[in-house]
């Protein structure tokens, strides 16, 4: 008897005996053949050592789990549906947060460009009396844009990983309720390679440092240029 | 020896192996059939029976360069059952031995 004959008889008998998860059982015997073949045994030898497939199929009758798993599965699925509602709302919130962050990043970058370009559409941006002061402001806004850009990158990766981990959890719940084997859970935080991690951290740190320095610098130089500490009153920023 | 008679003992041997470490089906089959004279195919139905009784569970482990492998892991219930069965088996063997030795003393 060769591999295919053995597997075919076993499969046929298992189905005849109404054994559940036949393919899972077949996969195990198939794997047995693969292991033994790579050890140098012939298919006939392996089949002979395994024993009579009809007798093996009979042995599965004793250990056949009853069909009670149907009710258990229904409970698990119901629970998962409720979990999905909450998890879904949470994911929408995360997605919204990413949108807000993106808008913030784009806005700060545009403000920075306006200061550098020296244009001020409809006086939307607080005007500064000196161009060099505008450059400091621009640097400040650019570093802020880069910082929140890194934040978005991390947020998107986190969101993606969380959705994947939740998907795996979801699948495993159903698998274990129906008595199938489960896959290992995925980590909930993103797994960056060391190099990416280093680069991200460096960009974030540098932009944070630049932002802090330019922020202080912008305040001091603005106050000096205006001659008062509350320079925004002198330049009438918040008066229309 | 009678196959049904052996099967109960093999269950104990399988639990003993899984008590030490998680293993995949082929591992268990090799371990047992190298030590006890049974056909290789006997171990898989036993593993499944143990699983349906809740003494072991399975999980898939993703390994590089191959499909995920199904590992068997002993449960807490399985551990308790194993330790109780082991003690019972060992005392049974001693009782049988003492009976058989009386015969040898004639």
Tell me what the structure shows:
The complex is a heterodimer of chains A (240) and B (106). With 240 residues, chain A is mostly helical. Chain A has two domains: 60 residues, no CATH class; 166 residues, no CATH class. Chain A contains eight helices and no strands. In chain A, α1 runs antiparallel to α2. The N and C termini of chain A lie far apart (94 Å). Chain B has a three-stranded antiparallel β-sheet with strand order 1-3-2. The mean pLDDT of chain B is 86. Chain B contains four helices and three strands; from the N terminus they run αβααββα. Chain B has a single domain, classed as Winged helix-like DNA-binding domain superfamily/Winged helix DNA-binding domain (Arc Repressor Mutant, subunit A), CATH 1.10.10. Chain B is elongated and about 60 Å long. With 106 residues, chain B is an alpha+beta fold. The chains are: A mainly alpha (240), B alpha+beta (106). At the A-B interface, α2, α3 and α4 of A face α2, α3 and β2 of B.
The CATH first-level class of chain B comes to Mainly Alpha
Main beta-sheet annotation of chain B: 3 strands, antiparallel
Number of domains of chain B: 1
How many helices of chain B does DSSP assign? 4
Whole-Å distance between the termini of chain B?
Answer: 26 Å
Q: Describe the global form of chain A.
A: elongated
Radius of gyration of chain B: 16 Å
In short:
The complex is a heterodimer of chains A (240) and B (106). In chain A, 76% of the residues lie in helices and 0% in strands.
What's the arrangement of secondary structure elements?
The complex is a heterodimer of chains A (240) and B (106).
Chain A: H1 3-16, H2 22-38, H3 43-50, H4 53-62, H5 69-117, H6 131-177, H7 194-226, H8 231-234
Helix pairs in contact in A: 1-2, 1-4, 5-6, 6-7
Chain B: H1 3-20, E1 23-24, H2 25-35, H3 43-52, E2 56-61, E3 69-74, H4 76-104
Antiparallel strand pairs in B: 1-3, 2-3
